[in-house]
Amino acid sequence: MRAFREAVETGDAEAVEALLAKDVVFTSPAVFKPYAGKAITAAILRAVVRVFEDFRYVREINDPGGRDHALVFTARVCDREITGCDFLHVNEDGLIDDFMVMIRPLSGLQALAEAMGAQFDQIAKEAEALSA
Question: Three-class SS of residue 39?
Fold first, then answer.
């Protein structure tokens, strides 16, 4: 998913949001219940940009049919180095309708969960503003 990868790598939050389907479902590596909807997913992704340091994609795996993609990344959260993967599925319109993230190691995931928890109020405000 070249357009998504380029938008993330250039920090273009509006372009990332434009690639999300209205009914996108975001599955966090740290929270049991998925988040449904474009506004909350976009707000979460904006917070991730604030939390991750030294983020970069290192590998891209694509389904030959073109609807499923995996983007492997590395980043740092506080003093923890992490490796993760964004699993994306696109709908018939080419928009992301399923977005699942996995992170390793556990200590890195714990640091991410703590850092994202500190962003919760801002995420809620941004999601409300984006849905208006």
Answer: helix
Task: Give the tens place of pLDDT for each residue, 78-131.
Answer: 999 999 999 999 999 999 999 999 999 999 999 999 999 999 899 999 999 988
Gap between the Cα atoms of 115 and 118, Å rounded: 5
Q: What is the dihedral of CA 117, 120, 59, 90, to 10 degrees?
A: 140
Cis? peptide before 64, omega within 30° of 0: no
Distance CA 51, CA 45 (A): 10
Q: Is 66 helix (H, G, I), strand (E, B) or coil?
A: coil
pTM summary value? 0.93
78 Ramachandran zone, left/alpha/beta (phi>0; psi -120 to 50): left
Token pair for residue 70?
């995996």
Q: How far apart are the first and last CA of the chain?
A: 28
